Predict the 3D structure of the following.
Amino acid sequence: MAKKENTMPSKKLDFKTGQYVVYPTQGVGKLVRTEDQVIGDQKIKMLVIDFEKSRMTLRVPLERAEISGLRPLTSAKKMDEAIASAKGKAGAKRMIWARRAAQYEENINSGDPMRLAEVVRDLQRRNPTDTMPFSARRLYMRALERMAQEFAVLHKMDVDAASEKIEDILGIPKEIDLNAVEEDEEEEEDYSDSNES
């Protein structure tokens, strides 16, 4: 039997110094330079990315950039589509909170605006009197911040202003930060159905 060849189209990602990029697990960073590193007897071109908020610098081998999920910023149109999808009704997922939380964590670490929007959609508070378990609030805030990082660069504003703008578009009650409450795990498991109304 002939060996099946990889049929995925191979696209060469073209990155430029000074460009903002998204690294899935870290969010938006700026490509500050490329440099050559010698590892073993091989010379490898590295993309050096600065993440200002976390004060971190990451080096990604150019040849592994696509595999690592490194990508240019999304378009303003695609970001608008993601925000629009976050306005939708929360997903009716009937699984225990721990499993849902793991799925949300995976969505956040994907760096994909639509998957981030899914977390924001499912975990947002729709009523100022609602309370939110601490772990759900933490996931919501991380997903919102990741979306806001990209939105901020696209619209030339700071991340806090971008977060507020996204929440304004979604109609999130301003009191959301005041409603975070600590709940035990058993109560958090019940949270899976509490946001579906």
Summary: The chain has two domains: 20-72, 76-194. The radius of gyration is 19 Å.
